[in-house]
Amino acid sequence: MRVNIDEIKEVGLQRDWDLTREAVDEIVRCDNAGYRSRGPAHVAAHLSKVERRVLLDAHSRLALTAPCGRCLTTVSVDVPVDFALTFVPAGVAGAAGDHREPDAGSHASFPAQTADEDTYSGKTIDLDPAVREQFLLALPGYPVCGDACKGLCSVCGTNLNERDCGCDRHVPDPRWAALEKLKPKSNE
Q: Is the pLDDT at 98 greater than 50, yes or no?
């Protein structure tokens, strides 16, 4: 979605658009959790101007499926994506692209006040990269089917939510492994 900044009047500009299921899949495919889209995503955005800065307030909801991070069953995940960004003209002091030396004691490579800023050049702002970035940032890193999910057996791979396999999954403390060699062997 491209927006001409001259279209943004005093009351702002409302833009709504849909991303196809395939477009959402292409975005979330970058994540290693195996997300897949269940349908298109609607994006509602309000843009307003303050001097040469353009303020973006956007909302969306992603309907996704992913394998549970513990038991690998497919789970449905609804991800709200709400964000606000400021677009500043490229080359303006304090813009996101204007990297200066951090203040003493700071570990950031840019001033904290510019963390939610992006730049634009000319009269057009391309919102797609910002929406893509915000979709990726909103994804849960470790989707699970439930807080009580028991996962898979580390020995035989059985889904422990369905049944207990009876495998010995006890992992001995490696710090005591040397003492196992001193243990007397029993006669068989």
A: no
Structure tokens at 128: 């797609």
Q: pLDDT tens digit string along 8-39?
A: 898 999 999 999 999 999 998 876 778 999 99
Residue 44 in contact with residue 61, Cβ under 8 Å? no
Is the distance from CB of 158 to CB of 169 less than 8 angstroms?
Answer: no
Angstrom distance (rounded) from CA 46 to CA 48: 7
Side-chain half-sphere exposure of 155, counting CA atoms within 13 A: 9
3-state secondary structure 94-130: CCCCCCCCCCCCCCCCCCHHHCCEEEECCCEEECHHH
Q: Which of 92, 95, 61 is nearest to 78 (CA)?
A: 61
pTM here is: 0.72
Residue whose token pair is 């843009």: 47
Residue 20: beta bridge partners?
none
